[in-house]
């Protein structure tokens, strides 16, 4: 059943623009609750912090109203509260995740009593700076198409009303559609697929910016997927398979893992970092308790292995449940501040990767014994070599500089490596928070000896002043690599 677009929705705009959309949302919800019919209210805000702030304000107002947050990083048990019937009018405060419900079933029936929508007109959208490889989650206006989708939620089962927290003039100035992924995200996978299918193509014809294309081509060359002429290699063709269920860079990482006798563990790590959800939950109101819960899975040298520890604990619990243990798995996840949905996603992705590797016989499934002194080292080495373009060098305190760009970044506040001052690290993500601070997320300590033979750490690849003279911009990091190379030569 697809009930949307069948009932009229009355649209209200602000007469004057307001910079405080949270206060405006609070005022509109209070007025709707006081003066309008008893149907539920659905509020669209850009992110978790704004949602929790408005929910807190509504609860403090002591209205006869059940206030329910709904966003993707919530525990699934908490999300399901919106599916349960209530004797009170409800105000559901959500992100973009409620825009595209198109069927009515047990998961979306809650929307059947929504007749009033409050739309901030804002969302957070992911971008990547191709020059620095830094991810940014930016507050941006919605498109007209998104604004219309939000309004339609009020007319799912009868006439409704939508209160937009922006003026009619602002609506007319909105873009018709959201910016294409090609213009704002990493496009290495798209370029590799095109190279595999079409060979020599003008990649800018597909809407990508020139800088995005150059960065992607450079990374693909460093990973061994393209040769120096830009032609796809045999390795690149294997990684470009449309059946490979994760980003192509993981194929290189899995190859390195096989050489380091840890491909079994790396398949699990690839799955965990390929879900669209966060494994470790950190709700703002319970963040300190969540941080304590996370420590039981922590690994002193590797956030990647902290994730692996949590995943293996979950898989071990599933085996015990299959054997007859009476445990509520979702409740266990909630108690440990783990996302049940993310772990289930990872389990599914892991199975798909294993099936692909088994069917194509490309990478051997091999594992170092858990109690071996080399268990941790092998995994860390494989990560370092696989993600050679995502390394950073310690500068001072918890400040690192990315290699080879030299951009400053802090370790994530939830990293197990915080305050440890490891000289070299490999990271999964470099991102901007709150328009001012740059962080490395999911970090593992590594050794420079593991990098010295890789193309992107040879002398000619170190960035230098524009005139080409003088020492490398990252002179200290280069010296560390040179010293490691000398140590290895002396030991041979």
Short description:
GO terms for molecular function: ATP binding; helicase activity; hydrolase activity; RNA binding. By secondary structure, this protein is α/β, with parallel strands linked by helices. The chain has helices at about 20-35, 50-60, 75-80, 145-150, 170-175, 190-200, 210-220, 235-240, 250-260, 265-270, 285-295, 305-320, 330-335, 340-360, 375-385, 475-490, and strands spanning about 10-15, 40-45, 65-70, 90-95, 115-120, 120-130, 135-140, 160-165, 390-395, 400-405, 410, 425-435, 435-445.
CATH superfamily of the largest domain: P-loop containing nucleotide triphosphate hydrolases
Number of domains: 4
Ranges with pLDDT <50 over ≥5 residues?
102-106
Question: Considering DSSP H and I runs of 4 or more, what fraction of the residues is helical?
Answer: 25-40%
Task: Provide the CATH topology of the largest domain.
Answer: Rossmann fold
So how many helices? 16
The helix-and-strand class reads alpha/beta
Please outline the major beta sheet: 6 strands, parallel
Radius of gyration: 25 Å
Number of strands: 13
**Strand order in the sheet with the most strands:** 1-8-5-2-4-3
GO molecular function: ATP binding; helicase activity; hydrolase activity; RNA binding
Domain Helicase C-terminal: 27-207
Protein name: Helicase C-terminal domain-containing protein
Keywords: ATP-binding, Helicase, Hydrolase, Nucleotide-binding
